[in-house]
Design a protein that fits this description.
The complex is a heterodimer of chains A (110) and B (111). By secondary structure, chain A is an all-beta fold. Chain A has strands at 4-5, 10-14, 19-25, 32-38, 45-51, 56-59, 62-67, 72-77, 86-94, 97-100, 104-109. In chain A, the strands form two sheets. In chain A, strands 2, 4, 5, 9, 10 and 11 form a six-stranded mixed β-sheet that branches. Classes of the chains: A mainly beta (110), B mainly beta (111).
């Protein structure tokens, strides 16, 4: 059962522009949503999270938006940098049981 | 502060054998979760331990088991290995809900 979906397997943006990564979920009971960045053969690196009681959380260049009625969240990276190129996973957590999306490969072109 | 440490980094085992993987969480973190990552299935939740007790469990067969010690270190055991168990096994530790920090993972190859 795919409770968390990232429908775009890849995204390419120009350096300096905004990157928007999207994620949909099905279980309205999830209490936290997280974004991770991952390089091959490494563990995911935690980027930012948001509680289900909020609709926005910002940390530097990263902002996560949560739309509970649509069961949708997005990660905005502004401005995008070539070093941001990686696979990004969204995750939804319920009582520390995290379900991950399949990931979106972001490529930021110089 | 040291991050999450997983040992070994790489492992090759034969079908039918059993394997034990180790995870040392960030100091002070009491929750440890285990995940399996494969190209076909992505990242899948195995189980979570808190204060030496399994709190949550994913949809994996009983061949996959774990435990947590009083110092919060955790081990994961897979018995009767199958070729399909080849994967990157990741451990994550957390102090608060809504955050989890991963180790580098153990790459298990079953031949």
């Amino acid at each position: 059962d795919q409770q968390v979906k990232q429908n775009s397997p890849s995204l390419s943006v120009q350096e300096g522009r905004i990157s928007i990564l999207n994620c949909d979920y099905t279980n309205s009971m999830f209490d936290y949503f997280l974004w991770y960045k991952k390089y091959p053969a490494e563990g995911p690196t935690f980027l930012i999270s948001i509680s289900s009681i909020k609709d926005k959380n910002e940390d530097g260049r990263f902002t996560v938006f949560l739309n509970k009625s649509a069961k949708h969240l997005s990660l905005h990276i502004v401005p995008s940098q070539p070093g941001d190129s990686a696979v990004y996973f969204c995750a939804a957590s319920l009582n520390n049981d995290m379900r991950f999306g399949a990931g979106t490969r972001l490529t930021v072109k110089p | 502060k040291a991050g999450v440490t997983q040992t070994p980094r790489y492992l090759i085992k034969t079908r039918g054998q059993q394997v034990t993987l180790s995870c040392s969480p960030i100091s002070g973190h009491r929750s440890v979760s285990w995940y399996q990552q494969t190209p076909g299935q992505g990242l899948q939740f195995l189980f979570e331990y808190f204060s030496e007790t399994q709190r949550n469990k994913g949809n994996f067969p009983g061949r996959f088991s774990g435990r947590q010690f009083s110092n919060s270190r955790s081990e994961m055991n897979v018995s009767t290995l199958e070729l399909g168990d080849s994967a990157l096994y990741l451990c994550a530790s957390s102090l608060y809900p809504g955050e989890a920090f991963f180790g580098q993972g153990t790459r298990l190859t079953v031949v």
